[in-house]
Amino acid sequence: MKHRIYLLFVLFCCGSLLRAQQTPAKKPSYVIVADGQIITMQQMQAYAKNGDVKSVAKGVSQEKRDSLAQKLGDSIGEKEFIVIVSLLNEKEKAEKAEAMKHTKPDSARALANESKATSEGKATSESKATSESPLVGKAADNFQVSMSDGRNVQLFSLRGKVVMVNFWATWCAPCLMEFYDFPGKIIKPFADKPFVLLPIAKAESRETVLAKMQQLAKDGIRFPVGWDTDNAIWEQLGDSPIPRTILIDKKGVIRFVVVGGGEANLAMLVEKIRELVEE
Q1: Average pLDDT over residues 231-244
Q2: Residue 15 banded pLDDT, cuts 50, 70, 90
Q3: Which of 136, 141, 178, 266 is the most buried (most CB within 10 A)?
Q4: How far from the centroid of its chain's Cα atoms is residue 40's Cα?
Q5: Considering only CA atoms, which of 67, 190, 174 is closest in space to residue 124?
Q6: Which residues, listed in sequence order, are joined to residue 139 by a DSSP beta bridge?
Q7: Torsion angle of the four alpha carbons 263, 268, 273, 274, in this order, in degrees rounded to the nearest 10
């Protein structure tokens, strides 16, 4: 009897551990650094409202992360979830204010929004989904991508399935934030549908990508990803910041393009995938 109870206990623990491994960890929050100091989201919003933000970089290199860790300690968290905010100095503020005095109202508003428009760099969490992209309605050219599970996938071999090509990078915080949502909102809901997810790392090596996925696996993020080391696939399908997602229908026609991460974009993607798999 004791042995049976012990066995049931072990099985229960193993089952709980397996469920925990299959469930991604809670999505990390951003750590925001401005002028070398950690600030809150409210402080960042105040800077933006006052027009004091010059640029925003979502994600930093390992070297930059290590440099910040020496100054600020481990409170900055993992490198991919750091946001660096550059602020206007007093001279730049004065020049901007003077320029706005001599600018027409419409142009002044555009100038006031200049920081936001230029701050995204090459990684963006701003939502932008469109069916008006020049790619929409065109047949996607074939490509081959090496995947982390050992497969070499050709796009043409996936005809009859809806394909979600997601361009990302290991340094792109909005991209990695999306990864925490993919298992529960993309992969599991469409597991029994004619659907394939192809996350492709832009301009990164196999070694860099595999190292990042090994790190993310600790948080339960486990799905195959590919790498586009020479940017060949990106040159076919990419012309904007990342994350960038392209939905290709069962006939190989591009039907939807989404730029940026965030809940709104993800909801649009889920809705569009649902439509396409039922066609």
Answers
A1: 91
A2: very low
A3: 178
A4: 21
A5: 174
A6: 253
A7: 100
Residues 254, 136 contacting (CB under 8 angstroms): yes
Task: Please state which of the ranges 30-34, 216-220, 247-251 shows the lowest mean pLDDT.
Answer: 30-34
Task: Determine the pLDDT at residue 111.
Answer: 42
pTM for the whole thing?
0.74
Look at residues 104, 114, 81 and name the one whose alpha carbon lies nearest to residue 180: 81
Collapse the DSSP code of 274 into the 3-class scheme (helix H, G, I; strand E, B; otherwise coil) and give the result.
Answer: helix
Tens digits of residue pLDDT in 177-234: 999 999 999 999 999 999 999 999 999 999 999 999 999 999 999 999 999 999 999 9
Residues 269 and 254: their CA atoms lie apart, in Å, by: 13
Q: Which two tokens stand for residue 170?
A: 């290991």
Give the ranges where the chain is alpha helix by DSSP (H): 2-22, 41-49, 62-72, 90-101, 105-112, 114-118, 173-182, 206-217, 232-237, 263-277
Asked if 135 and 254 touch (Cβ cutoff 8 Å), the reply is: yes
Task: Sort 59 into a burial class: Cβ within 10 Å, 0-12 / 13-18 / 19+.
Answer: buried
Cβ contacts of residue 32 below 8 Å, gap of 6+? 38, 39, 40, 41, 43, 44, 82, 83, 85
Amino acid, single-letter form, for residue 205: S
